[in-house]
Amino acid sequence: MVQAKALTKRFGEFEAVRGIDVEVRRGEAFGFLGPNGAGKSSTMRMIASVSPRTDGDLKVLGMDPNTDGPRIRARLGVVPQQDNLDNELTVQQNLQVYGRYFGLSRAQTRRKAVELLEFAQLSDRADAEVEPLSGGMKRRLTIARSLVNDPELLLLDEPTTGLDPQARHLLWDRLFRLKAQGVTLIVTTHYMDEAEQLCDRLVVMDGGRIVAEGSPAELISRYSTREVLELRFPPGQEIPPERFTDLADRVEALPDRILLYTTAGEAALEQVHARGLRPLSSLVRRSTLEDVFLRLTGRTLVD
């Protein structure tokens, strides 16, 4: 569905995407993870055929965006990070007008609107104005609108940012249904649990380069341990992290806690107690994609 080789994007002297290789297979959910400024959005815009590449090779749906942009865009669905719905139109009219952009007849857009409103669970809001809708409803409408042309490839930029947990899970359910219907998904997200839930494979980008690639399980296995022991000690009680280096594969000291990356968290906690140390609280949890992400990209905030 997407094949990129040495894909590069420069803005003047700034190189936003620095020669990446990407392959997205038909029917999968593929994710781009990375901190701000990693190059995710620039890559997505090139795939969406709205921003020309500076260098390298790129094929989307077997075509070159530089020469076949309109044909590619006709077969894509795009969900931008910010909803850009037409507030002066009703919910149903947003779908019908958008369908006309793709050459659908009025009868086709009416039928498609009914189908998509049901899919997005917005049938009871068909004649409502857009502005009073909740954030979750607007997001579902934006996704429904992106499906009006029956796209083979759906691009989603931060699809659930700002939504409450219930709305996020409802959107995940809609996206799972699309994937089951054979739609290929490409997702950028800041939510690591979202990437674990949705993505079959993903890449982690940092500084315009790909620093890791694989399934969520593969990345966790490769870059982290099976479990993590989190220890919090009373304020003012400074415990050198070196005291735990023989108990874990890796030890990370944070301002409020110490993390021990280990294959057996409970056994490590027993050893901590055996040394006479009494943390204020302790937690043994499984390693997550967030642990991998922070290890690969660091904990420093990037603007």
From TrEMBL:
<keyword id="KW-0046">Antibiotic resistance</keyword>
<keyword id="KW-0547">Nucleotide-binding</keyword>
<dbReference type="GO" id="GO:0046677">
    <property type="term" value="P:response to antibiotic"/>
</dbReference>
<keyword id="KW-1003">Cell membrane</keyword>
<dbReference type="InterPro" id="IPR003593">
    <property type="entry name" value="AAA+_ATPase"/>
</dbReference>
<keyword id="KW-0067">ATP-binding</keyword>
<dbReference type="GO" id="GO:0005886">
    <property type="term" value="C:plasma membrane"/>
</dbReference>
<feature type="domain" description="ABC transporter">
    <location>
        <begin position="2"/>
        <end position="232"/>
    </location>
</feature>
<dbReference type="InterPro" id="IPR027417">
    <property type="entry name" value="P-loop_NTPase"/>
</dbReference>
<comment type="similarity">
    <text>Belongs to the ABC transporter superfamily.</text>
</comment>
<dbReference type="GO" id="GO:0016887">
    <property type="term" value="F:ATP hydrolysis activity"/>
</dbReference>
<dbReference type="Pfam" id="PF00005">
    <property type="entry name" value="ABC_tran"/>
</dbReference>
<keyword id="KW-1278">Translocase</keyword>
<protein>
    <submittedName>
        <fullName>ABC transporter ATP-binding protein</fullName>
    </submittedName>
</protein>
<dbReference type="InterPro" id="IPR003439">
    <property type="entry name" value="ABC_transporter-like_ATP-bd"/>
</dbReference>
<dbReference type="InterPro" id="IPR050763">
    <property type="entry name" value="ABC_transporter_ATP-binding"/>
</dbReference>
<keyword id="KW-0472">Membrane</keyword>
<dbReference type="GO" id="GO:0005524">
    <property type="term" value="F:ATP binding"/>
</dbReference>
<dbReference type="InterPro" id="IPR017871">
    <property type="entry name" value="ABC_transporter-like_CS"/>
</dbReference>
<keyword id="KW-0813">Transport</keyword>
